[in-house]
Design brief:
heterodimer, A: alpha+beta, 4-stranded antiparallel β-sheet, two-stranded antiparallel ribbon, 61% helix, B: mainly alpha, f41 fragment of flagellin, N-terminal domain, two-stranded antiparallel sheet
Chain lengths: 448, 300
C-alpha cells in the first residue's frame, strides 16, 4: 500500500506542477494579443484492475492523470466576432473617407460656399458704384477666390482618390499575406497534431490572423482536422496548406488570380472600392457641375455686357470643370462688364450677374443650391457614417468582451488557482513524505 | 457569471478614461472658440442653415450700401429740383413784371439779362452730378449742352437702378428729358424750359408783352413737371429708407439666429465643462483605486 501511496503522491505533485506551469504561462501572457488562456484537464487515473488479481475486489487507486490542456475558446463567438469585424471594418473605413471628403470644401466659415456668396456680394457692391475701379477689382478677386476654392476641392479630391486607391492595393496585398501565413500555420499545426505535440501557440497565432483578415474582407471559416479553410463568398482563400491570391484587375477591381473572377467584397475592402468607384466620382461630378454651371451662367451674362471701354465683356471665367476653373487671365478691372452700354453709370449687367446665384438653369438648378446641396450632402454623410461606425465598433467590442470573458486571463483567478495548485502540490508531497516514513518504519524499524 | 479578464478590465477603464477626456477637451474647445459648429457634420441641418444665413447677411450688407448710394443720389436730385423750382418761381416773377407797361426799356433789358442768367443757372442744375455721374442725363455724362444760349438735351432716357432688397430694384435717377420739357410740345422740344426762358427774355427785350405772357403757361407746365419730379424723388427716398431699415433689422435678426445655430451657449458650455471635468476626475480616481487592487496584495 505504501508503495502505491508514494506513486499516487508522485502523480499528484506532477499534475500540480504541470498546472502551476500553465498558470504561470497564463500570467506571463496576460497582455499578449490574441492569447487564449489554458486550463489543465485532470482525471482520476484509470485503474489497472485490482492488485491481487481478484476481479471483484476493491479497485486500487492510481492517482491523477493529466488528460490534456484546453484552450478556453468558443468557435461560435469567434465566428460572431469575425462577422461583426467585417461590418465594423467597412463602417469605420466609410466614416474615415467621409470625414476626409467633408474637408474638401474648406472650413465652415471660409470655404467654397462662403466664397461663392461673397462673389455675388461683390457684384452687388459693384452695382452701387459701377465706375469704381476698386469695386471692379473686388469682383475679380472674389471670382478668383471662388475659382481657387473649387480648384482646391478638385485637387484634394483627386489626391484622395489616389490615396484610397493605393490603400486598396495595400489591403489586397495584406489579404494575400494573411492568407499565405494562415496556410503555413495550417501546415505547422497539422504536423504538430500528427506528432501529438501541443500546438496552442500556433492556434493562437492563426486566430489572430483570422481576426485581422476578417476586418479587411468578409470571410467564413471551416475547421477540419486542425486545418482551417477560409472562404471569401464561396471561393476558397485558404484550403489546408495552400492559399489563393487575389490581384487588382481592370480598374483596380480585386479578382482571383487563378480564375480572374471578381472577389466578393466585404469589410474595409468593400468600403474602399465603394469610395473609389462611387462616392468620390460622385463628388467630383457634383463639383464639376457646380463649376460648369457657374462658368456658363456668369460668362453668358458677362459676355452680354459691356466694359468701361465700350467693348463686349468676354468670358469672366475660363475652364470647364472644377479642376481648371480660373478668372480669365486677361481680365482687367476696366474690362469687367458692369453695364450694357459702357457708360460709367451703367450697372445693369452687374445687377444681373449679382442675381445669378439663384438663377435656375433648366434641368440642373441654381448654382447656390447646388453648392449648398453638395456641402450638406458631404456633411450629412460624414455625420451619419461616423454614427454608424460608432454603433458597429461598439457592438464589435461587446462581442469581443464576450469572447474575452472566455479566453482572457484574469490575474486574480490565476493567483487563486496558483494557491490551489500550490496547496495540492504540498499535500501530495506530504502524502509522499508520510508514505516514506511508513516505509522507513517498515524497512529500518522492524526486525532490527 | 461573466468573467472579466484583467486585460478587458484594463481596456474598459482605458476606454472610459479616453472618452471622458475627449468630452472634456471638446467642452474646452467649444468654450475657448465660442463655436458650437466647426464643420458641417457637427450638426448638418444647423450648419447648412447657418451658411444660408451667412450668405444672406453679406447680401443684405450689399443691399444696404446700395440703398445708401441711392439715397445720396436722390438727395442730390432733391436739392437740384428744389433749386430748379425756385429758379422757375423767379422766372415767373420776372416775366410778370417784365410785361408791365410801366417798365422802362432799360429795366426790361435788365430783366431780360437776369432771365438769361437764370437760364444758365438752370443749365447748371440740369447738369448736376453725383459722384461724377449725371443725375438727369441717364447714362450720359451730362444732360444738356449750352451752345451760346441755345440749350440742347444730350442725355439719354436710361434709368440708373439700385437693388435695395432682393425684391426691390428701383430707379434712383430722374428723366431729365421729361423734367426739363424736351419731349413736350410741338414740334418736340420747343417747350423746354430753356427755350421758354429764351423766348420770354426776347419778348420782354423787344417789348411784346403778349408774347411774354404767352410763355407763362409754359413756365407753369415746367413748374408742374419739377414738382412732380420732386414728389417722385421724395416718394422713392421714403421707400428706400423703409426697405433699408427693414434690411438693417433683418441683419440683426439673421445674425442672432445664426449665433443660436453656430455659437456656444456659454452657460450650457460651462456646465458641460464642469460635468466633463467631474466625470473625468471620477474616472481617474476609480481607475487609480481599481487598478492598484490585486489579490496579490492580500496573499502572504
Amino acid at each position: 500500500m505504501s508503495w502505491v501511496s508514494l506513486q499516487i503522491g508522485l502523480t499528484g505533485t506532477n499534475a500540480a506542477r504541470r498546472a502551476m506551469e500553465l498558470v504561470s504561462e497564463n500570467v506571463a501572457n496576460v497582455n499578449t494579443e490574441g492569447y487564449t488562456r489554458r486550463r489543465i484537464d485532470l482525471a482520476a487515473a484509470a485503474s489497472s484492475g485490482s492488485m491481487n488479481g481478484q476481479m471483484n475486489g476493491p479497485q486500487t487507486p492510481t492517482g491523477v492523470q493529466v488528460l490534456g490542456v484546453t484552450r478556453m475558446r468558443d468557435a461560435v463567438l469567434d465566428n460572431a466576432y469575425r462577422a461583426q469585424a467585417a461590418a465594423a471594418g467597412s463602417a469605420e473605413m466609410r466614416a474615415e473617407i467621409a470625414a476626409r471628403a467633408e474637408e474638401i470644401l474648406g472650413p465652415l466659415d471660409g470655404g467654397a460656399q462662403v466664397a461663392l456668396g461673397e462673389f455675388w456680394t461683390a457684384w452687388e457692391k459693384l452695382a452701387s458704384n459701377p465706375s469704381d475701379l476698386a469695386s471692379r477689382a473686388g469682383v475679380i478677386s472674389a471670382g478668383e477666390r471662388v475659382a481657387t476654392s473649387l480648384r482646391g476641392a478638385a485637387e484634394q479630391l483627386s489626391s484622395m482618390q489616389k490615396l484610397i486607391t493605393d490603400r486598396g492595393s495595400a489591403v489586397v496585398r495584406q489579404i494575400n499575406t494573411y492568407a499565405s501565413q494562415i496556410a503555413q500555420l495550417n501546415g505547422q499545426i497539422g504536423d504538430a497534431t500528427f506528432r501529438g505535440a501541443a500546438a496552442n501557440e500556433l492556434l493562437d497565432q492563426r486566430d489572430v490572423l483570422l481576426d485581422k483578415l476578417s476586418k479587411l474582407i468578409t470571410v467564413s471559416t471551416r475547421t477540419d482536422q486542425g486545418m482551417t479553410s477560409v472562404f471569401v463568398g464561396s471561393f476558397p482563400l485558404v484550403t489546408g496548406m495552400s492559399s489563393n491570391e487575389m490581384e487588382e484587375g481592370t480598374g483596380g477591381t480585386p479578382v482571383w488570380s487563378a480564375t480572374g473572377t471578381p472577389v466578393e467584397l466585404g469589410g474595409e475592402l468593400a468600403a474602399i472600392r465603394e469610395a473609389v468607384n462611387l462616392t468620390l466620382p460622385g463628388i467630383e461630378t457634383s463639383l464639376d457641375e457646380i463649376a460648369s454651371v457657374l462658368i456658363s451662367v456668369v460668362n453668358t451674362q458677362h459676355q452680354a455686357g459691356t466694359n468701361l471701354d465700350g467693348a463686349s465683356g468676354g468670358a469672366f471665367f475660363s475652364g470647364t470643370t472644377a479642376a481648371d476653373i480660373r478668372v480669365t487671365s486677361s481680365l482687367t478691372p476696366r474690362g469687367v462688364a458692369a453695364g450694357t452700354t459702357g457708360s460709367p453709370s451703367d450697372n445693369r449687367n452687374a445687377l444681373a450677374i449679382a442675381a445669378l446665384g439663384s438663377y435656375q438653369v433648366p434641368g440642373v438648378g441654381a448654382v447656390d443650391d447646388l453648392m449648398a446641396n453638395l456641402a450638406g450632402q458631404l456633411g450629412e454623410s460624414a455625420a451619419s457614417t461616423e454614427q454608424m461606425a460608432r454603433v458597429f465598433s461598439s457592438s464589435l467590442s461587446s462581442v469581443d468582451d464576450q469572447r474575452q470573458s472566455q479566453m482572457g486571463v484574469n490575474l486574480d483567478e490565476e493567483f487563486g488557482d496558483l494557491i490551489r495548485y500550490q496547496r495540492a502540490y504540498e499535500a501530495s508531497a506530504r502524502v509522499m513524505q508520510i508514505a516514506d516514513e511508513m516505509l522507513d518504519k517498515l524497512i529500518n524499524g522492524t526486525g532490527v | 457569471m461573466t468573467r472579466i479578464p484583467t486585460q478587458t478590465a484594463a481596456k474598459n477603464m482605458q476606454h472610459s478614461m479616453e472618452s471622458n477626456f475627449a468630452r472634456l477637451t471638446d467642452a474646452q474647445r467649444q468654450l475657448s472658440s465660442g463655436k458650437r459648429l466647426t464643420k458641417i457634420s457637427d450638426a448638418p441641418t444647423d450648419a447648412i442653415a447657418a451658411n444660408r444665413l451667412r450668405a444672406k447677411e453679406s447680401m443684405a450688407g450689399a443691399f444696404i450700401s446700395a440703398a445708401d448710394d441711392g439715397l445720396s443720389m436722390l438727395a442730390a436730385q432733391d436739392t437740384a429740383l428744389q433749386d430748379a423750382s425756385s429758379i422757375l418761381n423767379r422766372v415767373r416773377e420776372l416775366v410778370i413784371s417784365g410785361t408791365s407797361r410801366l417798365q422802362s426799356p432799360q429795366a426790361r433789358a435788365a430783366i431780360a439779362t437776369e432771365l438769361e442768367t437764370l437760364r444758365d443757372q438752370m443749365v447748371t442744375v440740369a447738369n448736376t452730378q453725383f459722384a461724377g455721374r449725371s443725375v438727369f442725363g441717364g447714362f450720359a455724362a451730362s444732360a444738356v449742352q449750352n451752345t451760346s444760349g441755345s440749350v440742347a438735351f444730350v442725355g439719354d432716357e436710361n434709368t440708373v437702378d439700385r437693388r435695395v432688397s432682393p425684391e426691390l430694384t428701383l430707379s434712383v435717377s430722374t428723366n431729365g428729358k421729361q423734367v426739363f420739357g424736351f419731349e413736350a410740345g410741338s414740334p418736340a422740344g420747343t417747350d423746354n424750359v430753356f427755350a421758354v426762358i429764351n423766348r420770354a427774355a426776347a419778348a420782354i427785350r423787344s417789348a411784346t408783352p403778349e408774347d411774354a405772357r404767352a410763355e407763362l403757361d409754359n413756365i407753369d407746365a415746367r413748374m408742374m413737371d419739377v414738382s412732380g419730379a420732386l414728389a417722385s424723388v421724395g416718394g422713392r427716398v421714403n421707400q428706400i429708407e423703409l426697405v433699408q431699415s427693414q434690411a438693417e433689422d433683418s441683419i440683426v435678426a439673421m445674425r442672432s439666429s445664426r449665433s443660436l445655430l453656430e455659437d456656444v451657449d456659454m452657460g450650457e458650455a460651462v456646465v458641460n465643462l464642469k460635468d466633463a471635468e467631474a466625470a473625468y476626475q471620477a474616472t481617474l480616481a476609480v481607475v487609480a483605486r481599481l487598478h492598484s487592487t490585486s489579490l496579490l496584495d492580500f496573499l502572504r
